[in-house]
Amino acid sequence: MRTTARPRAALFSAAVLSVGFVAATASTAAAVPSADALIAEVYGGGGNSGATLTNDFVELANASSASVDLSGWSVQYLPASASPTSPWQVTPLTGALGANSRYLVAEAAGAGGTVALPTPDATGAIPMSATGGTIALVTTTTPLTCKTAADCAADTRVRDLVGYGAAVVRETTATPATSNTTSAARPALTDTDNNSVDFAIGAPTPTNSLGETPGGGGPAPTPAKISEIQGTTHLSTLDGTKVSTTGVVTAIRAFGSARGFWFQDPQPDANPATSEGLFVFTGSTTPTVGVGDAVTVVGTVDEFYPDAAPASSVMLATTELTSATWTVGSSGNPLPAAEALTPTTVPDTYAPSPGGSIEGLTLDPAATALDFFESREGMRVQVSDARVVGPTTAFNELFLTTKPDQNRSARGATVLTGYEQQNSGRVQVLSLIPFAQRPFPVADVGDTLAGVTAGPVDFSRFGGYVIQATELGNLVSGGIQPEITRAERGGELSVATYNVENLSPVDSQAKFDRLAQAVITNLSTPDILSLEEIQDNSGPVNNGVVAADQTLQKFSDAIVALGGPRYDWRQIDPVNGADGGQPGGNIRVAFLFNPARVSFVDRPGGDSVTPVQVGRGRFPFQARLSASPARIAPADEAWLNSRKPLVGEFSFRGHPVYVVTNHFNSKGGDQPLFGRFQPPNRTSEVQRLKQAALVNDFARQIVRIDPFANLVVLGDINDFQFSPVMAKLTEDGVLRALINGLPVTERYSYVFQGNAQALDHTTVSPFVLRPDYDIVHINAEFSDQASDHDPQVTRFVPTSIPWPNR
Predict the structure, then answer these.
(1) Is residue 561 located within the same domain as residue 706?
(2) Residues spanned by the domain of 756
């Protein structure tokens, strides 16, 4: 909106007119933004088809702390495409527009609608258009005569004006068109003299001078400090209450569909459990405020759950204000100091553990990380010279640690070592800085954001508490490089596992080449390679294709083209759509093997539905598979919508070696580490426990017959080395997990939300002696990945009995 600035004589004239005296009109001055009375909202769809409200309305607002006398003023309306003879229609006003208050003018009623306006402060009968027109706030009741934007701008009686839709008379550019169900409303009580900038289109929200809204609307806003709104638990006791509060704007989110701003009380209370910061949600409209503005905000307190409705959400809620309006009292104010997160600031314990929801618990910010960050929700914090522990993703996010010595690996990762050791120093970082101004840092694990990274604390469903950075440190490389494992030597057999992340012929040749180069260089061409996430020949296209020969051929060809050996393969096509994973992809596990080094023992009978049987061979201690390749109990409920293990028998220099490659069901569906329920429920674990029991039983059958057997069970187990699943897989010493032989801070093959963790495993039977085991870090720590998993290699000299005539 705009107003016409007036010299002292004009201001005096207006004051005189307000008490019934007549004075001379002063000369016109340049237009400047209005500092007090503004048109806040216009709606012309009342009573029309599809409308809820019965009446059109105009809402005024006062951006100042002084009352404005409206006696003798009017609201006037002109059609969008006015003819030279079109009159301005007039609704006289009475009374006053209170300081920082609203004033509702009811206009014509339509035939429809079901909800009445709150009691209006003035009533007219103008039938406003639902889609376009001009509303003027005029300091007299005499109809205007201007019919152009320029003429109306020159009329000193016009205090404010808005053109909506296709209005010819407007300030700079009209607002977008409204409708029977939408109004044009000013998100903030500021005036740039450009209607399209100052107004946003949304659901109508008429409010009268008492603060009432449709249906009675309740009382005026409840005054409250931000700390009183936030309270001492995760949920505000004022949830659903319309409040009025003050603070200084500290950050603005000016992009996306969740725009808004953070503001913080510069005069905090003495309670460390109550946050002094708050987010104001403005939807897809960029708020017209500036950092450093001192604002008074009126809005409804809401607990926002990012994943689902409150009753079904597993996340923690963010306390925010919605349907908000605000006034700017002053600008350029200093920001509250950002709290420094040092290595000792955040507690070492990650979360309280009540065995249920933590939302109602009184926050103890000195006890747990979740309580600490909740007590800083919306407040400015900063970290200095922080190490990256989760690489930059395609979503422009990374994870830092505030605790550089917490379970640190030699390469700079923060390693997950147990369910009770969730690494409380981890914090997600997003950026509020336009990428054109400051590109988001592309960081690897072990890099540092040197200097200060600062911003308000927010909450994300993809990582928990997050710093929404208004300041980013400078990226300094930590220098990590992809690892290269040694080649086998002497009589060693090398067996590797690699999750190649939904590989299919629709992937680029570059992806195949990169994976192939890793097999040759980083894995030193292992003799046997267990592959997970091999898709069918058509990839994610759901067309009934289940064969994967083209996928494996393309991978094998890529290895040869880059100078590697010609690998052969074995796999079993799944039943269409039965093994989970990406829809249409028919994901499965497979073996690649180098026939120049190792032979595959083919035994007919293996298919997608027939279970492998373990029997006795011709000799004592000789185990014999009914089929090779084959599957373990494929019809068992444990494998419902999940990949079935693939069993293969190999021969290396006459020694039989059994290999089982696995891809257990994912952890999808588990409650998050940072959620409202603590400890989180690991629902997906139930199925993996059943899967582990079946594989353990298969291994038990082998070693019961042949205690000297060389059996390797490996793959993407989708669980941690300390999990019940791994305990079940290795139960009774039938298998042993090689990862447990590594130093604690080297036990990881995957990085998720800043936690370096082990999902991929290699286990061996007791008579696999002195295996040399290596997790080869080439992906998980890096922003540029061929897969999200790191492969691993085991080398050993087979010691199984070389049975004749197999």
Answers:
(1) yes
(2) 493-796
Question: 802 CB contacts (<8 Å, ≥6 apart)?
Answer: 653, 654, 655, 656
Give domain status of residue 81, yes or no: yes
User: Do residues 53 and 113 touch, judged by C-beta distance below 8 A?
Assistant: yes
Looking at the chain, the number of H-run helices and the number of E-run strands are 9, 46
Give how many domains the chain has, as a whole number: 4
Name the β-bridge partners of 387: 401, 448
User: Are residues 357 and 308 part of one domain?
Assistant: no
Whole-number Å distance between alpha carbons of 271 and 228: 10
Q: Using 50, 70 and 90 to split pLDDT, how confident is the model at 593?
A: very high
Residues, the chain, total?
806
**CB proximity list for 684: less than 8 A, separation 6 or greater:** 665, 666, 667, 668, 669, 670, 718
CA atoms of 228 and 103, how far apart (whole Å): 28
Q: For 217-266, what is each residue's pLDDT tens digit?
A: 456 789 999 999 999 999 999 999 999 999 999 999 999 889 999 999 99
Q: Which two tokens stand for residue 685?
A: 């674990």
Q: Measured between alpha carbons, how far is 712 from 739 in angstroms, rounded to an integer?
A: 13
The closest alpha carbon to 273, from 358, 366, 197, belongs to 366
Number of Cβ within 10 Å of residue 23's Cβ equals 13
Alpha helices in 478-540 (DSSP H): 509-517
CATH number at residue 82: 2.60.40.1260
> Which residues touch 540 (CB under 8 Å, ≥6 apart)?
502, 504, 506, 582, 583, 584, 585
Residue for token digits 């107004």? 199
Strand partners, 529: 496, 592
CA 568 to chain centroid: 42
- Token pair, residue 399, equals 């994870």
Q: Are strands 568-570 and 493-503 parallel, antiparallel or unpaired?
A: unpaired
Structure tokens at 174: 């009209």
Average the pLDDT over 325-354 and give the result: 95
3-state SS record for 558-595: HHHHCCCCCCEEECCCCCCCCCCCCCCCCCEEEEEECC
pLDDT single digits (tens) 7-55: 222 222 223 223 222 222 222 223 456 778 999 999 999 999 988 899 9
- 324: nearest Cα among 410, 247, 435: 247
Which run of H or of E encompasses 37? Answer: strand 37-43
3-state secondary structure of 603: strand
Asked if 776 and 524 touch (Cβ cutoff 8 Å), the reply is no
Is residue 250 domain-resident?
yes
Residue 6 pLDDT class (50, 70, 90 cuts) = very low
**Residue 687 and residue 669: Cα distance in Å, rounded?**
12
pLDDT digits (tens, 9 = 90+) for 423-453: 999 999 999 999 999 999 999 999 999 999 9
Q: Is residue 291 part of a domain?
A: yes
